[in-house]
Structure formats: structure tokens, C-alpha cells
Records
---
Amino acid sequence: MKLTRADYDRLMMPCYVPMDMLVKRAHGCYMWDTEGRRYLDLTSGIAVNCLGHTPEGVVKVIKKQASELIHVSNIFANVKTLELAAKLEKLTGFERAFFVNSGTEANEAALKLARRAALENYDESKDEIIAFSHSFHGRTFFAVSVAGQDKYSDGFGPKPGAITHLPFNDVEAFKKQISDRTCAVILEPVQGEGGIIQADPEFLKTVRALCDEHHAYLIFDEVQTGVGRTGTLFCYEQTPVKPDILTMAKGLASGIPIGCVLTRTEIAMHFKPGTHGSTFGGNALACAVGCYVLDTIAKPGFLEKVTSKGAFFRAELLKLGQKYGVFSEVRGKGMLIGCVLAEKYKDQAAQLQKLCFKHRLLTLLAGSGVLRLAPPLNIKKEHLKEGLELMEKALQDFTAR
Ligand SMILES: Cc1ncc(COP(=O)(O)O)c(C=O)c1O
């Protein structure tokens, strides 16, 4: 069957507007379309393919695991799920894991757990969830209502209640709002979709202290920042606080769908048989790849290189952006990078992204004013340099319009 990009618009629900090509294959940091054109991919499947496309080690693990055990459901325990839970416990200190298939599902489970624990420890009046403007926590109706972007949650009828949105990094607004009614506070340590905005350390200290005072759970959504993306295994390690509940997904199995919620035993115990579940969650194939990913990125020196390559790339991008007067700032941590467009070009990130595509450089957006880059964690410096050359061509076109 000969299919083209035009068939996408005929066959698929119109939720996305993919770039004008049809992907055939990908390897490392390159992608090829059906016309044989090669692209340098600095999107990593939206921060998912942390070891690049089709990495040899992952392919080997998939082949081996697929020939042994793929899926049995959670009515049976399997070795690989336990292996991944044990590795995560060793690396983070969180004693209990719940596996799902996506970031949304991880946050949905975390929010339900926080509500259930508060209800059982106190009463049903302790139901408020505090979240922040520009946050993104996924697309189920609860997760999308909790996130602070109305454009994603409006238009689907009545929303789940007892959710408060506050400005991010605003200590005073937070102090004013949190009370004994608050059962959970959820935040991204670096807001990804919202524009690569870091949580301020002083803000986090206040949030942690007041969560403790009011017996509210602090949930860190590390779906995008986790699994090495920001240069440490989890981004919370670079902050002065540790959350009570931690969610992750994206990079954990390098492209095989997986998500996970981690927490301490006393919180986890509020999920009892029947309170929550997932058919696919924790399947052996995804967990086997998850084990391989964690073993790889926890190797000595791996994460240090993510930090140093990220710092190099950010500095060079800023130089380029300033040479052409297009970027006012290049921010982020490790391999999660946001090129902020200068006031003159504010809201034109999508136009720049299209020009990058013209030069066969694949990039992401984080809102209308930030071009986001999420290269594979193991990308070589020579490929980052190639990215800079292609970016320069796109910037030349952008300013010459
Ligand atoms: C911080 C954050 N949370 C949750 C999600 C939702 O994850 P998923 O698309 O895997 O459901 C995303 C996805 O971009 C994210 O960046």
C-alpha cells in the first residue's frame, strides 16, 4: 500500500498537524522519510527516545524479552516489573511503585492516591489540589483540569472540582492559598510544555515547608524532566526538596510506552486491591527496557556528560540567537532546552520551527514564544554542532523574511 502524508488528514482524527513528511525509519539522532530525506532529530519523540532512535542495546533487550515474555497483566506478578521497581527503589529511596503506560496515567494515579490518602487520614473536606499556571500534566479529564492551561480543559463539560490554580513561583500567592483543606500540590520542577520555566529554589522550600505544616502531599511531575533529561536521574535532586510522590514516563523505556508513580509505603498503602489498576501497566516488555535504560544512564559519567553537553549547546545557541537578534535567552537544564524568542519575534516560534524543518532540523515548541530542543541524552558533540549549523541557516531565513 502506497501511503503519503496527505492520507494522514483523511484517516486520522484531526488532533495533530504533523510536519510535511511521512517517517519511514530512524536511527540515533537521524530520521528518514519515505522520500529518503534525512533529518537531524532534536525532539527525541518529545523527550522520550533518551538513547536515540532504535539504539542497539534497546533493540537487543526487546528481542530477547519479546521471545520470553511480553505481557501477563497484573493478576500475575512478573520478574521484570519487580526488577524495575527494585532498581527505582535503590536509585530514589521511594519504596513503592505503580506502573502505567503514559505520563497522564502516572499523574492521574498520583492525584487519585493523594485524594484517597487525605480522605482516609482526615475527611472528605481535605480535597483541594493546588497546581500552577502554564503547567501541563496530561490529557485525561482530571489531569488536564489540574494543569493550569484552560485551552486544553475547556469545552468538555463540567470539570472535576476542588482544584486551585496559582501563579508559578509566587511565594506570597501560595502562602495565602494553602490550608488544612489542601490535600496535594503538584508541580513540574522545570515546566516543559509551559516554556522551560524552572521552579525557583526558594519557592520550592516554601512549598515543601507549608505542605508539611498542612499535611498536604507534594507531587513532582517528572514526566518530562525525569530519567536523566535534566542531567541528574531526577530533577528534584537538583532542588532543595524531595517530593512525597514522584511521577515519570517518557524516557523511562526509551520509546516503549510506560509510566510510573513512586512514593513511600505509608502513602502507597491507601491504594488497596481494586482502588486503582491498569491492564497493560507494568508489562514485562516495557519494564525490561526500563531496566536497561536505568542501567545505562546510571553508569558513572553518563549524566555528567548530559550536563556538560547541555551547557555547551545552550551557550552556543545563545551566541547564535544573539548574532541574529532572535533569542533573548536560552534556558533549561541538561538536554531540556528552551530558546526564548526576543520581544520583536514574540509568538513566532512556530515560524522558526518551520524554517528549521526546511533545513531538515527537527525541533519542538514550548508555547508560542519558545523553541524547545530535547536531543537524545547520548547525542555526540559533532551532532550538536551540526544542529547549530542548521539552526544558523534557519535563523538567516527567519530574519530575512
Ligand atoms: C510534565 C508532563 N506531564 C505529563 C505529560 C503527559 O504525558 P503523556 O503524553 O505520556 O500522557 C507530559 C507530556 O508532555 C508532560 O510533559
---
Amino acid sequence: MEEPALLDELGLVTGLRVLDLGCGDAAIGRTLLAAGCRSYLGIDGSTEMTRAATATLAGTPGRVERMDIERFSAPPRTFDLIISRLALHYVDDLDAVLAACRHCLSPGGRLLITVVHPVITSHEARQSTEQARTDWVVDDYFHPGTRQRDWLGNTVTWHHRTIEDYVTALTRAQFAITALRECPPRPDRFNGDMAALARRQRVPLFLLLAGSRA
Ligand SMILES: C[S@@+](CC[C@H](N)C(=O)[O-])C[C@H]1O[C@@H](n2cnc3c(N)ncnc32)[C@H](O)[C@@H]1O
């Protein structure tokens, strides 16, 4: 559901040097290279995902490196666009990561991130993930910090932050915020499944923030 908002905000990528933090299988890398970006580097901490990303990028100039997002650094003006899709809520020290992003972006360069929406990361009330969810609980919203989640059969640690926390962190890292979007479901993405659309209209799942390096 965050893809339409992400693609809107990406706009033209022709000639851009792109860094993707927490790239997963790097599917977006192939899309961006096909759309004319000059280079694409994906970073991911998972061996399995970097293997998948390498396969996705085969035959393209795109590259992938296995590394924790928190350890990534590059010289000033290395990238024109940094994206991070659904990865930064796994990161503890967001300030350090945003400072590293600012450091390696060219002046006027852009940062575009999506995270699991804070109303979802705030609290988990359900016992089972086996059935489609029919209710949601927002609680402990103003208690930022770690949350253990049962996610696709594994226990993962998310870092809950409020929307205000994300905006403040970007501003503190001297990014001028250019977009804040809550990624509403787009009806044309539901193949006529109005029940699924109605369900996805109940709560936001994703938050997108974009900023430019002053
Ligand atoms: C939900 S997936 C999203 C993948 C991809 N960005 C996408 O949108 O398809 C999150 C990815 O971030 C990676 N990840 C999470 N925490 C990380 C960290 N601290 N350092 C590096 N990679 C991390 C995971 O391995 C996973 O591939």
C-alpha cells in the first residue's frame, strides 16, 4: 500500500545516484535503474535478502552490500537520493542513521523513507497472526521504544516512534520536510475487492516522509 505514494514522491530519477537502506530483494532497484537512475546501491543486513537482491540486480549496474544500516557511511556528495522502505523502524539510533544520510547526500539531495505507521507500531493486542485482523488497538502511543512483534513466523524488534518523533528527527538532521503521507489504499490496486479495500481504509499501515538536504 505504500508503493503508490512512494512512486509519486520519487518523481523523476533520471541520472540520480541512489542508495537504498534495508533494500530487501532490491526490486525497487531494478525499477529505478529501468527508469534511468545513474547508479543503485542496496544495503541489507540479511544474507538471504542480499542474495535475493543480487539475483534481482543481475545484468544491471546495480550493486548490493550486506551491512547493517547503522554501520553504513560514505563520503560527502556520494548520493543524490536515499530511500529506505519499511526498514527504519528496525533501527535503534535513528539520529545517527539520518546524520549519515545527510553526510553522504549531495546538496539538494533527497531522502525518502517509509516505516510501519506509528499507530501500528504503538501496541499489539492480538494473540494470533493466523487470521486477517479485524480490530486494532492504539495504546502506549507516547511511550517510544522497543516492541516485540510476531511477524511472519518470527519474533522481531520494532522501534516505536510517534509521527512527531520522525518529523523531529528529520528536522534535527537538517532535512527540510517535503512530504508526509499516510499511504491510503488506492482503489485501483484492489482488483475490485471492495471488502479488502474497506478493511484497508480502517487504519493507516504506513507512513512516508520525504526531505531534502538543505
Ligand atoms: C520489511 S523489509 C523491506 C525490504 C525492502 N525495502 C522492500 O520494501 O521490499 C525490511 C528489510 O530491512 C532489512 N533490515 C532491517 N533492519 C536492518 C538493519 N539494522 N540493517 C540492515 N538491514 C536491515 C531486513 O533484512 C529486510 O530486508
